[in-house]
Write a structure and sequence with these properties.
The structure is a single chain. It is built from ten helices and no strands. 38% of the residues are buried. Helix 1 (29-60) packs antiparallel against helix 2, helix 2 crosses helix 7 (172-179) and helix 6 packs across helix 10. The chain is globular, with a radius of gyration of 18 Å. The protein has 273 residues and is mainly alpha-helical. The chain starts with 28 loop residues before the first helix and ends in a 5-residue tail after the last helix. The chain has one domain (24-268). The chain has helices at residues 29-60, 65-95, 99-116, 119-143, 145-148, 153-168, 172-179, 184-215, 223-247, 261-268. Helices cover 73% and strands 0% of the residues. The protein binds fe (ii) ion (2 copies). One fe (ii) ion (FE2) binds next to helix 2 and helix 6.
Length: 273
């Protein structure tokens, strides 16, 4: 089944970070800092995904014409994601010391993967990441309202837009991986590989930003708030684990997940170029 029946739209929203605070998600600071860490990977990760998909299309030749249009839309969305996240990342680079060194490391990782690993391996990594993208979208639009209470509207808008489009193209990397003959075992193995790879980077980046904010007195969390944050974080992790377990079942197909109407409503509230 082609993904043509799931609509993908390439959008260019506009965000203004002029009044974005460092702790932009005050109800769940840890998640906010982790999303910052995730944002830093995107100008390296998303061009990598586009390259992997292009290579896969070359291998598939004329055998799956239905996937060409899906990959074109996928690549158009991903290209906008990393370009628009780069504007936010410039703010992070301005605020924190040591960001460039972290970026150089993740950039080198993706270059190495493209150089040394097989197409099947890179497709498994990409499909694994796109599973994470789909789960993150579900979390953002269905499970994390309490984390988003009081969040900075510009950064919330950036992630909401990005994750709404991740949800729209949730089938593409999965379909291409299957079309090239990727096995369930590899899908599972590389899901955990990419999750660990990106988590290691994200944890390090989040720690760097948070430590600097704490040291400079930009982030002080009162003990009574600390317990509330931990409760929200635990609830969120439970939801994420349940959704990941479901997405990793052998018979899982991302197209079975229905449209997220809350994502559509969210997209209507943004400003576009
Ligand atoms: Fe993306
Ligand atoms: Fe994606």
């Amino acid at each position: 089944m082609a993904t043509a029946e799931i609509e993908m739209t390439i959008r260019r929203p506009i965000f203004d970070y002029a009044s974005t605070p460092r702790n932009w998600m005050p109800a769940n600071p840890a998640f906010g800092y982790h999303l910052n860490g995730g944002s830093l990977t995107l100008p390296y990760l998303e061009p990598y995904l586009i390259r992997v998909m292009r290579r896969a299309l070359e291998v598939l030749g004329d055998s799956r014409p239905d996937l060409r249009e899906d990959v074109r839309l996928f690549s158009g969305q991903e290209a906008n994601h990393y370009k628009i996240h780069s504007q936010f990342n410039a703010l992070l680079r301005e605020r924190y010391a040591g960001i460039e060194e972290l970026e150089a490391k993740i950039e080198a990782d993706f270059a190495r993967m493209l150089r040394e690993e097989t197409l099947e391996w890179n497709l498994g990594y990409s499909a694994g990441f796109e599973t994470t993208g789909m789960v993150m979208s579900q979390l953002f639009f269905e499970d994390v309202a309490e984390s988003l209470a009081g969040a900075d509207p510009a950064v919330e808008g950036l992630w909401g837009w990005h994750l709404a489009e991740e949800y729209e193209h949730r089938c593409v990397a999965f379909d291409v991986f299957q079309a090239v003959g990727g096995s369930y075992r590899e899908r599972l193995r590389l899901f955990f590989y990419q999750a660990n790879h990106l988590k290691t980077f994200g944890d390090k980046a989040a720690r760097l930003m948070r430590d600097q904010d704490e040291a400079a007195g930009h982030l002080t969390i009162r003990p009574e708030h600390r317990a509330a944050h931990a409760r929200i974080e635990r609830r969120q992790m439970r939801c994420a684990r349940r959704r990941i377990a479901w997405a990793l079942l052998p018979w899982h197909d991302p197209r079975r997940h229905p449209v997220l109407s809350s994502a559509d409503r969210f997209l209507k509230k943004l400003d576009y170029a």
